[in-house]
Write a structure and sequence with these properties.
There is one protein chain. The protein is mostly beta strands. Helices cover 10% and strands 45% of the residues. The chain has 3 domains: 68 residues, Roll (SH3 type barrels), CATH 2.30.30; 95 residues, SH3 type barrels, CATH 2.30.30; 136 residues, no CATH class. The protein is built from 2 helices and 22 strands. The protein has a 5-stranded antiparallel beta sheet with strand order 6-5-4-1-7. Strands 13-12-11-8-14 form a 5-stranded antiparallel beta sheet, covered by helices on one side.
């Protein structure tokens, strides 16, 4: 009778060890490809961002990222004057290099969201446009974190203006004071809001890089050494052709004003004359010391209300109400004060 040996069984511990070593090897290979541990999380802010296999002058495109894609950032490097980031898209094993200008760190985007929530109730005062490439910052300071860099010509809504003491050394050419600002110890900053399609919705821009964009319908209507700093449309007036056009609650300021605190020193309301098709004065008030932001609402097609923060000689701010009404086919404006309890007085901004 032959003795039969039992069938051989695989050594489970050895197999588990082998599998574990293989997994470690795969992770090691991935870390080698990536170049170390993760530095940060980022979000793609460009419409499209090409991904390359290296940062060399001669490289190959290996993929493309879309706006809103989330990535892990493993390495950053400057090559030939360009900032690059080695990234890996969430849910994708492919690793490659993308220009860093197409990304924003997730933590900055979260800070941007918090800023947007903080100023959600502030309404646009007028449009703005960048004169040159400019950094968008979380706070109105030269040393504040940069959300992204915007191209010259970028347009946005202006919500606020802040006058901030210049403390940091100028390191960004776009924030370099002009010849007539070199003796000034304060910088002007604008809080800008961008379209809903933008990943970043809000941020601070250096005032010297911003130009005011007047609504085309009333462009140039403010003259005599004054500049428009606010233009709020309201109501509707039909011109001779039956086209519905807006009227405007305008804020402006003397160009060579020696008052750096006030954002505007005149209220100028214009209404469309349906017969001539021209804008005529409905109300003006001068001099005043007003500051952003002006609140407003269109109560109906024939009524609108504006809440304007005005400073007294001591710098205390009182909210003043202006009401526009369409009476006998003519827009008229009346001024009145809000109840004292609506907002406590505050000191002028420095």
């Amino acid at each position: 009778m032959l003795f039969r040996y039992p069938p051989l069984r695989p050594a489970r511990p050895l197999l588990a060890l082998a599998a574990g070593l293989a997994l470690v090897g795969q992770i090691a290979c991935l870390r080698t490809a990536i170049g170390g541990g993760k530095l940060d999380d980022g979000v793609v802010i460009a419409e499209r961002a090409d991904v390359f296999n290296s940062t060399a002058l001669v490289n190959s495109k290996i993929g493309q990222l879309q706006k809103g894609d989330r990535v892990a950032i493993y390495h950053q490097s400057e090559v030939n004057g360009l900032e690059w980031a080695k990234v890996q898209k969430e849910g994708d094993g492919k690793v490659g290099w993308v220009e860093a200008r197409h990304l924003v760190p997730r933590k900055l985007l979260d800070a941007c969201l918090a800023l947007d929530q903080e100023f959600a109730a502030v309404q646009p005062q007028i449009g703005g446009r960048l004169k040159r490439e400019t950094r968008l910052r979380i706070q109105p300071r030269r040393d504040s974190a940069v959300i992204t860099t915007l191209k010259g010509g970028t347009e946005f809504d202006i919500l606020l203006r802040r006058r901030v003491e210049r403390r940091a050394v100028v390191t960004d050419e776009s924030e370099n004071p002009s010849a007539d600002e070199t003796d000034v110890k304060y910088d002007a900053w604008y809080l800008a809001r961008f379209p809903e399609s933008a990943i970043y919705r809000i941020g601070w821009l250096y005032g010297g890089s911003v130009e005011i964009v007047e609504p085309p319908a009333i462009a140039g209507i403010v003259g005599g050494g004054r500049r428009m700093v606010g233009a709020i449309p309201f109501g509707v007036t039909l011109d001779k052709s039956g086209t519905a056009l807006k009227n405007y609650f305008i804020l402006d300021k003397q160009i060579f004003s020696n008052d750096p605190i006030a954002d505007f020193d005149r209220i100028y309301v214009v209404r469309l004359d349906p017969k001539s098709g021209n804008y005529t004065s409905a109300y003006y008030e001068l001099p005043i010391r007003g500051v952003y932001p002006v609140g407003y609402r269109n109560d109906s097609d024939t009524e609108a209300t504006f809440t304007v923060p005005l400073m007294d000689k001591s710098g205390n701010v009182t909210q003043v109400e202006y009401r526009a009404e369409l009476i006998n086919s003519v827009w008229t404006v009346k001024k009145g004060k809000l109840p004292a309890s609506s907002e406590p007085p505050r000191r002028e901004r420095r």
